[in-house]
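Incident log, entry 3
Record: Glial cell line-derived neurotrophic factor (161 residues)
Problem: checksum mismatch between cached and fresh output.
Input:
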Amino acid sequence: ANMPEDYPDQFDEVVDFIQATIKRLRRSPDKQTPIFSRRERNRQNAATNVENSSKKGRRNQKGKNRGCVLTEIHLNVTDLDLGYETKEELIFRYCSGSCDAAETTYDKILKNLTRKKKLVTDKVRQACCRPTAFDDDLSFLDDNLVYHILKKHSAKRCGCV
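Fresh output:
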């Protein structure tokens, strides 16, 4: 008896949630993964990330961003400490590493001029390892069955900025 016309706002949110869930399922691996405690998952991910980060840093990059790599960890959304209580899990990707190799001649000149007090600026910023692109939005229901969408929550690509 209650049709979507009666609750248009909720209907749109449910459709968005279903579409986001389908996208997430398409990206997830076909095989079932065993269930581990958070500590075991973090240990496994740390070991995997050490191996992968050295490989990822060399692959498909132009040498200047070698120290800046994409790293991932499996977490519960509640672990993000954004105020959501939920059992939903995600793979959180973040950028880590050094951008010293990305320093240009311009950066060196600015540092030198600042050090010699030829420039008025108090601090010259160094290049830092930051996301250059973000994963798709994350949709989930919290423990109170409230629908949420997180935008720009996880890195997709990293670079020295």
